[in-house]
Structures are given as structure tokens and as C-alpha cells.
Amino acid sequence: MDKKKTVASKRGIRVGILSFGDGRSFLQEPLKEVNARFLQALAQRLQDDGFDVVTGSEVVWQNDIAVREGRRMAAEAVDAVIFNFSVWAWPQYARVAAQFCPQPILMFSNVNPQYPGLVGMLANAGSLDQVGIKFYKTFGDIADDAVLARVRTNLLAIAAANRLRGMTYALIGGRSLGIDTAVADPALWMEKFGIDVDHIDQMELVRRADNELVSKSSRIPAALEYLKKHLRKIHWTPPDAAMRLTEELLRRQLGMYYAARDLCAEFKYDFCGIKGQRELTEHYATADVAEAFLNDPYGPEGEPHEPIVCSTEADMDAALTMQVFKLLAATPVLFADVRHYHADLGVWDLCNSGEHATYFAAKSFDPVENLAKTEFRPEGFYFPAGGAAVYHIAAPGRVTLARLTRSGATNRYRMAIVPGEFVTFGAARDEELACSVQDNWPHAFAKFDCAPEDFINGFHCNHIHGVYGDWVEELIAFCDIKGIDWELLG
Fold first, then answer.
1. I want to staple 285 with a disulfide (CB 3.0 to 4.6 A). Which of 207, 252, 410, 473 is the partner?
2. What's the CATH number for 168-488?
3. Topology of domain 2-164, CATH
4. Could you read off the pLDDT of 50-74 as tens digits, one per residue?
5. Full-model pTM
6. Are 365 and 335 in contact (CB under 8 A)?
């Protein structure tokens, strides 16, 4: 409960509440106290749970009030609206007000058997349904934690769906290594999610990184000293080593981090992806350090910042999946390859080229805790340009993993949802397992709630994403809101 309360509070999710009533004028005064009491209880409960609540200025009991209050919700830029029913309410008012409000609408009826609020909610739901306005319904006592949890789940999903609209994704590079699932049609994104895509050449990342390297006010020296102090180890190599990790290369990688941060700040990009392979990884330096710290809640100098979702290989649907997770959970989001299944242990190895946020090393928002469990190791033969891979083992805990993919000529979206758990076998055994697969990249050892064959048959991508905690119901609600097919594997 506390976890999801924190989400609402950290995100500043703004929720509007409109109360609906009886259209007969002589009933307004007798019902005033009932409507006010239940509205206050609902608003207070949501505020205590971390939501920013905007209540209507009056009970909606005439059409002109419905228009005025609906427009007020729009003007207040709320992320979701609750239509609240404490008494019988004429159904016409809901669909008049709803046309001005962010949708879908969450309808709520209190436990109040002396007055037909439940009757009103059901009648109003039918009214909305007739005109194709999407809604969800909850009935119960808002003081009940289970009822609050249902309301919260829908509010988080509705807010996530609505907050995507108007965002901009920075596509730095293009398709990497022929991975078709990493490329999406920008027109589809605008139509389906309201997201714009801006394409930037990787040369701009290099140009800005080079400028940062020689700038008199460069942020790189402070970051480098911080990392030297707090990382568990940096595995430096000689300049002529076959696979190199030198200060020069690490400085380039830090330069790319600041280049990407500055790009996003200057052009107001909400999330991004970096192609990396092959140009950067063969001729400049890998973007692993930049990608890890963009996804982290702090930079390489330890300063806190809002995580910026960044997908490696410029994987657009990866970034989209991660952005949905970020909006729901308000934490860094994992990006990984489904690398291997240890059949003897029943564990999947989720491993990618250093792109995991260091947050996952200790599951902490404190960089010192995470970096103490993180090493910079030299890149391997895949990336001849060299540089650091961000090595660590993900901290144990329940997780929700997922991936958005597209199918068929219509590019219909589908989400595979995979509940599971990150596990550890102790430091020595974890290291042994990691080195048996890839000794310099980060790993998350995951037990899925589904059989291996069910996962293989139901998951149509090499990349997977996720966060700590149980977010299955929120993902399902999000998919329902956006008209996305979903499959729960487990």
C-alpha cells in the first residue's frame, strides 16, 4: 500500500471529483449534507493516499452545471476524473460533463443504503455506455483498503494513459542490428498514444560529448571522481589492451550521458533511445554508462534527477513499455535481453550490455548503496570501440515484467505480462552464474510465474522490461484503456 501511495505522491497525479445529484430543485437542500459528507470522505482518503485532489465547486444537478464543472476539470488539467454518486442522480448529467473530462471516467458509489447512490451510478453508467464513453465502476466503502486499492489501480492506469498524450520520444539513431521489433511507425504512436517521435542523428550525441570533454565547465571530472570513490571497482586496462577500459573512453561515455541529458532538457524530450550499435560501439565508445545513468534516479556525480527512460538499440516499443512502467511505478525500469534459462535452477538470466540502471544493484534511491555493488568492467568483443560495461546483479524481490509488441499488417499492439521474482544465490554463486554467460554485463536472475515453454511460446521479443512490485492489475487496466490485447503469462 505504501509503495503505491508513494507513486501518486511522487508523480503529483491530479484527480478531479464531481458529485452528481437529483435534478429536482426542492431536493437540493435536504441532500446537501449527504453529498458533502461522502465527497469529503472520498477526497480525504485519496489525498491521504498521495493524490492531488480537485473537487467540483457544486453538485451537478442541471445541464449547465455539468458543462461548467466538466470544463473546470479540463481547465484544472486533471489526469483522471471520478464521478461520485452518494444519492440518486439523473443520468443525463454524466454524459454532458464527461465530454469535457479526461477519459475513461472512473465512477464511484459509496455504501449508503438509505439513498440510492448505487442505483444512480448504474443508471449513469448505462447513459455513458450509450454514447461510447469509456468508464470503470467501483462500489464500496472508501475507508476499506481493498476498495481504495481498486480505485487506486484504475486511477494510476488512467493517469498513465492520459499522461502519455503529448509526450515526445527522442529517437537517437535508427534501427540497430536489423531488430525490426525495435522500430515503430511514428504515425501509429501519435494515433494510438498521442506521442510524437523526433529523430536525432547519433553524430549530435558525439558532437555534444566532444564539446563537454573540452569545456572549461565540464561536468565530467566531478563525475569521474565520484565514480572512482563509490564504485566497487573500475577494471582499468592498458591503452593497448584488446578490450579497453581507459579514462579517455570512460570520459567519452560520461560525455554522452551529459549530451543526452542536455538534449532532452533543451528540446523537452520525455524519453529516448540510443542506437549504439554499430557506429558508437565500433568507432567511439559504448553508450552503456549513459543509458544506465539516464534510467537511474541520479547522475554519475550522485546528484538526484528524474529518471529519463532510455532504451538501448533505440528500441521504440521497449522505451514505450518502460515509460508506461515509469508512469505507474515511479521507479527506474529494467531493460534486458532474455539471455538464457538455467534449467537446473529454474531461473532466467536477464542480461543486456550494461544498460541496467545501477538502481537495480541494491534496489535503492541512494547512489552510494547501489554503486557499492556495481563495477565498471571492460566491454567484450561485440564492442571493439571499448569502454565500460555497468556490471552488477539485480537485488532480489518480486517483480512485474512486460513487453509491448505489434502484430500483423494493422500493427495491433499486444502486451505480454510476466509476474516473477528476482533471486540471488549468494555473491559467489551469482558471480559464477554471471561469468558462465557474460562476465562483464549486468544480470537479473528471474524466476517467472509461468512454465518455460509457456513463456517461450507467449513472448515475441528479445527485450524484456520491468519494475519491482506487483503491477499486473495496473498493466491490464492500462491495456484495456488503450485497446491493447494482453496476455498474462503465469
1. 252
2. 3.20.14.10
3. Rossmann fold (3.40.50)
4. 999 999 999 999 999 999 999 999 9
5. 0.93
6. no
